[in-house]
Give the backbone structure.
Amino acid sequence: QVQLVESGGGLVQPGGSLRLSCIVSGSIFSIYDMGWYRQAPGKQRELVARIASGQLTNYGDSVKGRFTISRDNAKKVVNLQMNSLKPEDTAVYYCVRFRLGSTEVGYWGQGTQVTVSS
């Protein structure tokens, strides 16, 4: 079955950078849109970024200009480069696979914690 495994989370100071990775196994990868959501304690889950099978991307307003999503279809990997991190970026970040032709998420990873603090 489909498995999404995130890595790269951790503690970083404001203004710092972090790179998250998601390894996808157990299914076809290249035809699906992939993305990242995040959820902070007590807050709604928020779309961070989405990347289509054809490499088109979109981003949540709060991360535009700071985060970059990318994918390597040969390696079945999705990355999220996070720069100029702010305390409000603190959250659990989830790798997701979207359903075909849909805004709905079909599969979620277990999440990786990102904490931005001095």
Summary: Residues 70 and 79 are 5 Å apart (CA to CA). The mean pLDDT is 96. The first strand starts at residue 3 and ends at 7.
